[in-house]
Each structure stands twice: as C-alpha cells, then as structure tokens.
Write a structure and sequence with these properties.
Blueprint (H helix, E strand, L loop, with lengths): L2 E5 L6 E2 L1 H14 L7 H5 L6 H6 L4 H18 L5 E2 L3 H10 L3 E5 L4 H10 L8 E3 L11 H10 L2 E7 L2 H9 L3 E5 L6 H6 L4 E3 L4 H5 L1
Parallel strand pairs: 1-4, 1-6, 4-5, 6-7, 7-8
Antiparallel strand pairs: 2-3
The structure holds magnesium ion.
The site of magnesium ion has 10 residues, from loops.
Amino acid sequence: MKRAIVFDLDGTLVDSLGDIVASFRWAFGALGLEAPSEATVVAEVGLPLEAMYARFAPEGAVAALAAAYRRHYPRHFADRSRPFPGVPELLGELRSRGYALAVATTKRSDMADRLVAAMGLRDALDHVQGTDGFAHKPAPDVVLRALAALGAEGEWMVGDTVHDVVAGRAAGLRTYAVTWGTHDEQTLRRARPDVLADDLQGLMSVL
Ligand SMILES: [Mg+2]
C-alpha cells in the first residue's frame, strides 16, 4: 500500500490568509457592521465560516455574514494568494519518492478545488478533500476521507493550526506543524506535534 502525506491547505501550502481575512471583514461592511481587526481574524482561520463569525458577531447576524462572505470570496480568493515558496517543488519531490499526496481542508470541496487549481497545484496532488457537511477538524473525518480516497496508508499530517495537529493525531498520523500560518509557535507547541518547524524542507528529513 502506498504511503500518504495529508496537507492542510490555507496557511500551510498556500499563502491565502490575506484573501480570506479580506472577504471575512468585507462582509461586516456589507451588513453595516464594524469589522474586527485583521490580527484577531487571522487567529480564527481554519474554523468553519459560521464558527468564525460567531466569535465576532451576534448569533442573529452569523448566517447573513457567512452568506455575504460566500458571495465575495469566490470572486477574490486568488487576488493575493500564492503557494508558499518551495511548495510546488516539495510536492514534486514527495511524489517522486512514491508518496500519495492529499489536501484535507475545512473549506468546502468546490472552493478548495478552485483554490488548488488557481494556485497551479492540481496536478501535484492526488486528491483534494473538503469538509462537506460532516464534522470539521479537529475531528479526524476529513483526514480519514482523504486517506480513503487515496487508498493509501496515512503517515504524516502537515498543518498550521492546533486543529490540524489534533485531527491528524486522531486519524493515527504523525503530525508536522508549520509556524507561518494561523497559529504561532507557542500555540502550536501546546498541541504537541511530532515536529514543529519553520520550513517544509524538514519534512524530507523525517520521512
Ligand atoms: Mg490552515
């Protein structure tokens, strides 16, 4: 059986937090509400949209904010987003070592597919698994579905939040946390990933 590496998408493979945060904050303006600061929003990226809005808005406004986001983000998701430096090369190298590669994201699959394609990563990945109406990370479901789609044995989960670390561990994978995304080093350390790194190249040395 092939071995697999499962990656989170936003803040891990793709520098996409700027576009997410911009759309998230835009929705407040669209509803005549005051938007929270960029920094406070960044810290919540990785949760489902409704859960993110619930952190900043009264419950009665959450559905309208999420709907506004879903109008705005599909038109702006690639304005500033780019793969992090070295990501296409790293995925190519892992492939050449025989690994099956998947994304497991809290985004819905249709939007995740569009982002992956726009970033030029579609051919570098064997599967893109979004969270479509089942339990989101830190539950292991999206990771397990990605592995099932690959038909491969999971080895590593790579992500930028404690949710990724907890989900990966719950799915029976070793966990590799990267420090350039949503959660800072201190926050990630509390989740006790197997590896905590400020680059992805380290992944090659622990395989
Ligand atoms: Mg992330």
